[in-house]
Amino acid sequence: MKMRLWLWCISFVFLCCCGIQNGFAYKIPPVEMELKGEGFIVSIPHEAGIENVAFNVNRNRPFKAFEQGEFSGRVSTETNNRWIVEIKRRLREDDTIYIWTDVQFNKNRFRSMSSPIMVSEVPSGVIAINEIVHDKKPVVITTETPPAIDPRNDICEPTLTIIRNRNACRGELIFEENFNGNELNATRWRYEVRMPLDIADAEFVLYDTNAEVTNGMLKIEPRIWGNDNPDADIRRGNLNLGVRCTAYQNSDIECRRQAFGRVVLPPILTARINTKHAFSFKYGRVEVRAKLPQGDWLFPLLLLEPLANLYGQQAYASGQMRIAFIRSNLNLQTSGGIEMGGRVLYGGAVLRPEASYRNTFMVNTTRDAHFGETFHIYSLTWDDQRLSFEVDGQKYGSIDGGFAQHEMGHNYAWTNGNHMAPLDQEFFITLGVAAGGHGDFSDDCLSKPWANTSPKAALNFWRDRGNWKSTWTNPSLMVDYVRVYAI
After folding, report:
1. Nearest to 477 by CA among 428, 429, 434
2. To bridge 381 with a disulfide, which of 290, 335, 388, 431 should be the other Cys (CB 3.0-4.6 Å)?
3. Where residue 14 falls among pLDDT bands split at 50, 70, 90?
4. Do 220 and 270 form a contact (C-beta atoms < 8 A)?
5. Name one Pfam family in it (predicted).
6. Model confidence pLDDT, tens digit, residues 197-236
C-alpha cells in the first residue's frame, strides 16, 4: 500500500510540473528576460497548443509557493512567436529576479518556477523587441494595479489572517507598497507630526513631514535641529505644531513646547509614517526590504502598532511588534563587553517601556557587517501561537505567546485575551527613524552621554553632538518595499 501511494505521488508531481495530454508531455521552457528602457520584458517561446500565459515576478524575494508576485501579468496572444509581458519598473544591477510561469496548454494548466536571474548578468538583445509589430504589442504591467492571477482551478484556502473590512485567502498578498512616483501615497500612508510623549522611553526627536520618495524608494533622513548652525539652540524658543499636530494622547506635550531650564526643544528632526487610517490586520507575514540607518544613537522604526489599544494606551499595554531593530551605532558595547551596535539585529515585541526590560521578548542575530551597509529583507510571521523572524530568508528566532503568564507580563487585562494577548488584535504598519530616548539604549552602554532617568537626558545628548554627528555618514532609512501576506 505504501509503495502504491509513493508511486501515485511521483506521478502526480510529474503531471503538475510537466503534464501529459494525449501522450504528449508539455514542459514550460525557461523564461528569458531583457532590460528595456524604464522596465524589463519576460517571455517564453510559442508552441502550438498554448492558449494563454501568465508571469509572476518578485524582486529580491524568492517565492515560497505559487503565490501572486510583486508584478503579475497574463497575456492571451503571442507576439512574433513569443509570449511576452513587459513590466514598467526600472531594475538595479544588484537586484535578483524570481519568476514563476503559468501556462494554459490544450485546456490544461501548468506551472513552473524559474531559476533566479541576476540583473547584472542579463544580456542585451535576448528578444528582438524592435521586430514587434505595432498591432500586437506586449502586455504592459505596472506595480500600481497588477492584475490578479487567473483563478481557474485555484482553491481559496482558509486563512488565519483577519483584514479590516474584507476576507482573504491563505498566501494572498494583502498589502503592497513599492514607493513608486514622486511623493508618498496618501491613500496608504499618513505622516505623524508630533513630539513623543515625555514617558519612560520618549525619543529625542520631532516627527514631521521630511520623508522623500524617489527612484522607487522611501528615504527618511534624520537631521540635527537647525542643521546645527551657530544660531541653532534647543534651549531657546517655542515650538507649536498647530493644526498639523497628530497627537495621540496629550496635545499639550505632543504639539507644543516652550524651552526653559531643563526643558529643551527636540534635538533631531525626522519622520514617521503609518497605515493606521488605511490598512491594519491581525496575523500574517510582513516583509520589508530596507537599508537601515548608520550613525550613533539612531535606530529604525519598522513596527506593527495596535489599531484600537484594547488593553490600554500607555506603557505598551497593547504591545508593539518590531519587524527589525538595530542600535545603529558603528561601535557599541556594554561595560561587560557585550556587542550592542549595528551588527546585531533584533526582532520581537515591546511590552514594557523600561530599557532594562526591552530585550525580554526579543530575539537577535549577529553579522560581520553593519546591517546598514546594504539592503536586507526583514520578515516577521505573526500567528496565534508565536512570532517568527527571518532576515534574507534565514530564520533567526521565534517568540512564543503566553505573555500574560510571563513574569514580565504586568497587565492583568491580558488574561482576558488569547494566547498571544496583547498581540491578538489588529495592528498597522509604522516606518521611521528615531534617535536617543530613554528606553532603547541601556545606561550600561559605553560612551553614552545621557542617563535614562535624567531630566536633562535630551540636553546632554545634544551637548555631545561633537562626538556623534561625525558618525552620521549614512543616517537614512531606505525602504524598497513593504508586503503583507495572509497565512
Report:
1. 434
2. 388
3. very low
4. yes
5. CBM39
6. 866 789 999 999 999 999 899 999 999 999 888 888 899 9
Do 199 and 301 reside in the same domain of the chain? yes
d(CA 293, CA 298): 7
Is the CB of residue 162 less than 8 Å from the CB of residue 281?
yes
Mean pLDDT of the chain: 86
Together in a domain, 199 and 59: no
d(CA 111, CA 102): 5
Q: Is 431 exposed, middle or buried (0-12, 13-18, 19+ CB in 10 A)?
A: buried
| CA distance linking residue 72 with residue 101, whole number of Å | 10
Measured CA to CA, the distance from residue 233 to residue 222 in angstroms comes to: 17
Radius of gyration of the CA atoms of the chain, in A? 25
At 139, list the grid cell. Answer: 502586455
Residue 281: CB atoms within 10 A of its CB come to: 23
pLDDT band at residue 347 under the 50/70/90 scheme: very high
Nearest to 423 by CA among 275, 306, 284: 306
Task: State whether 331 and 413 are in the same domain.
Answer: yes
Cell of 248: 495621540
Q: What is the CATH number of the domain that holds 98?
A: 2.60.40.2140
* Whole-angstrom distance, CA of residue 231 vs CA of residue 253: 25
Q: Are residues 331 and 211 in the same domain?
A: yes
- In degrees, rounded to 5, the angle at the alpha carbon of residue 479 between the alpha carbons of residues 473 and 482 is 160
pLDDT band, residue 371 (cuts 50/70/90) = very high
Number of domains in the chain: 2
Q: Is residue 237 part of a domain?
A: yes
Spatial separation of the C-alpha atoms in residues 29 and 46, rounded to whole Å: 10
Do both 115 and 212 map to the same domain?
no
